[in-house]
Amino acid sequence: MSDGPSPALRILIAWPASSERVKALTLIFAAACALCAGAATAQEPSARGVAGTVRDERGAPVAWARVTLAVGLAAARHAVTDDEGRFAFDGFPAGEVTLTVEARGFARAIRSWRPSDVPAAEVEIVLAPASVAESVTVTATRTETRLAETAASVVVIGEESLATTAALTLDDALRQVPGFQLFRRTGSRAANPTAQGVSLRGVGASGASRAVVLADGVPLNDPFGGWVYWGRVPRTSVSAVEVLRGGGSELYGSGALGGVVNVLTKRIEGGNALSLEASGGTQRTLDGSLHASARRRGWGASLAAERFHTGGHFLVARGERGAVDTPAASRYSSLNLTVEREINPDFRVFARGSYFGEARDNGTQLQRNRTHIRQTVVGADWRNERAGAFTLRTHFSSQVFDQSFSAVAADRRTEALTRNQRVPSQSAGLSAQWSRAFGASHVVVAGLDAREVRGASDEIIYAAGRASSRVGAGGRERSAGLFVEDLIRVSPKLLLTAGARLDRWRNYDALSASGPVSNPAPTSVRVFPDRTESAFSPRASALYAAGGGLSLHASAYRAFRAPTLNELYRDFRVGGVLTLANENLRAEKLTGGEFGARLSSSDSRLNARATAFFLSVARPVANVTLSETPSLITRQRQNLGRTRSDGVEAEFDMRFDERWSLAGGYQFTSAAVARFPVNPALEGLRLPQVPRHGLAFRVDYAVRSRHALSLQARASGGQFDDDLNRLRLDPFLTLDAFASRHVGPRFELFAAAENLTGARYEVGRTPTTTLGPPRALRLGLRLRAGRR
Hints:
Blueprint: H1 7-14, H2 19-48, E1 50-56, E2 66-71, E3 77-80, E4 86-89, E5 97-102, E6 109-113, E7 123-127, E8 136-137, E9 145-146, E10 153-158, H3 159-163, H4 170-174, E11 181-182, E12 198-199, E13 212-215, E14 218-219, E15 238-245, H5 249-252, E16 259-265, E17 273-281, E18 285-296, E19 299-310, E20 330-344, E21 347-361, E22 368-384, E23 388-408, E24 415-438, E25 442-463, E26 466-489, E27 494-516, E28 524-528, E29 531-547, E30 550-561, H6 565-569, E31 572-574, E32 577-580, E33 588-600, E34 606-618, E35 621-628, E36 633-639, E37 642-655, E38 660-675, E39 693-702, E40 707-716, E41 719-720, E42 728-729, E43 732-743, E44 747-754, E45 762-765, E46 769-771, E47 776-786
Parallel strand pairs: 1-7, 13-16, 32-36
Antiparallel strand pairs: 1-4, 2-3, 2-5, 5-6, 8-9, 10-15, 11-12, 13-14, 15-16, 17-18, 17-47, 18-19, 19-20, 20-21, 21-22, 22-23, 23-24, 24-25, 25-26, 26-27, 27-28, 27-29, 29-30, 30-33, 31-32, 33-34, 34-37, 35-36, 37-38, 38-39, 39-40, 40-43, 41-42, 43-44, 44-47, 45-46
């Protein structure tokens, strides 16, 4: 109900009916109209609102990016982009408008305009990949740390970089990291699995890795032999790969002699997500990779699968090839299923089951191998503001590895089966970690892990094409370690890190047995004594922010690697080289140090880092030549006295504008035998499989019209394939290219070319020279929907 006429109306009623009254009425009416017009103008932005699309530099929509709208002093409003990268805000009050867009793996983008500006009906925001200074690593300190605030030498390869490389496998993509190499120059598509161990910084390459390889913190290294099956993690499920160079045993224990490679997979987040990639190309290569995830009412699930097949290439050059040579074909399938329950935002539990199956033809008619791996991982994460953050992981795996070996005639016209091996192994592990911040100056990380491995090598020996004897050898290893680390911010410019770890392990229940095939019972059994060793691995580092984007860093550390059951108990033969086991091997122990500088421009368009390193390894395990004949080279795994690996690594990434970027790296390594009293003739010789020079660079071009182009190059200096430095492998250079075009918001067509120039470079001399892969071309399709 009205309380009566308004004051203005009362005035008009009381006003005399005259010309003055008419004039006054006209003035009041005009003033009211002006006030209404002003009010309408003030409310116009509310009616207009703002909407837009978020894309990456290749034009692909970025789903589930967080968009924040701030206007003056009003409360900020939030939105999340949909599958097509779109967002919208209905209306906002008058004032300066600021849009902030954030997405994992990208640099933050900010767009602002004044009230007098009229924004476009559609605002398009292009996100650039996160710069080095903005990137976060979890591997260097086992807790989230900005790269700009760690003294460790870490390279983070994000999902966008992996998506624009021509490399089909993860290990080939990682060759863009200076100092990363497998045992030989061949990638995992053609190499025998036992030659796929990782070496970093030239600490010495062999089948067993001198680096720990993890998938979300769970070891991927083969429990029996230490090598790596790179296809176990489907590519579409990978969000980033972190490579830590330098000793990492203070946090990761045995195997982290030269560093750590941590493969991080996509998280199960809100909404549904789907990534699919399929391609086909030369050498009868077919590949398909899938990742899908969903979350409902606190429950989440993800499925990752991959299927790969290639007809392969001939390993031996045409001039030396014989009737026994066949293409090195390979095929594998991998499947990972994860289910998790989010009890609350600070507490989740999960379980993951995985399967991997692989089969290979290793270049001749009789040399083949097969692998089957099953693994279960169960874990929990809990965070409390007062107590800190806790993580728990348990993992169980079982696998069977079968391989056949042969002797090939000098003219390569005939070959004879020499061995059939079956290597069953099982492993179980546990890790627990706690971290907590104490004020603004300390972050403490502590934890423990334990593991038990058992495995054996069961062989049938052939003579003149007939099974003659049976040989079996194997044992068990049990290990445990405790670690602690303190990240100390002494001042705004100085950050110190101190950590240490104590490990103890025991080899037991080891024996070898042999006997004729005609008599199933072994005729002789040799029991190896139990052995126990321990290792203390400290680390200290400092990072000083000198100002102007320049920071200085230095580290000193110790690391170790215990010999694997494979090195202790399993013989093997590759071509004309027989390598014998050695049950008396002791752990390798590294003492190292490094110092260097990092420079970042104020706009983060240029980031550069240079590091000098000095590594000394006591008792390194090497394949030492015992005898040589025209048909057979016999070697044995032995502990050398000491080796040294000193060098310099430098890398940079530069963004010229939204379209062009350039990145590269170089490493010089001088790696040699420093002392070996048992055989002084080896002293001063270069370590096999370690080149002195390694170079990699890539150029990327992306435009908003959804095109992307990338060119990558990799060069390696000469190296030796043997301990005596007689079998030299020449330098080589390869070029790869990648191009893609988006078709709609979800589909992408791409073409990839590896070894664009068709260079045939040497990868091994056993003593027959084997060659790397020829030119390879692929065409493919990608589908992405939901959160990326």
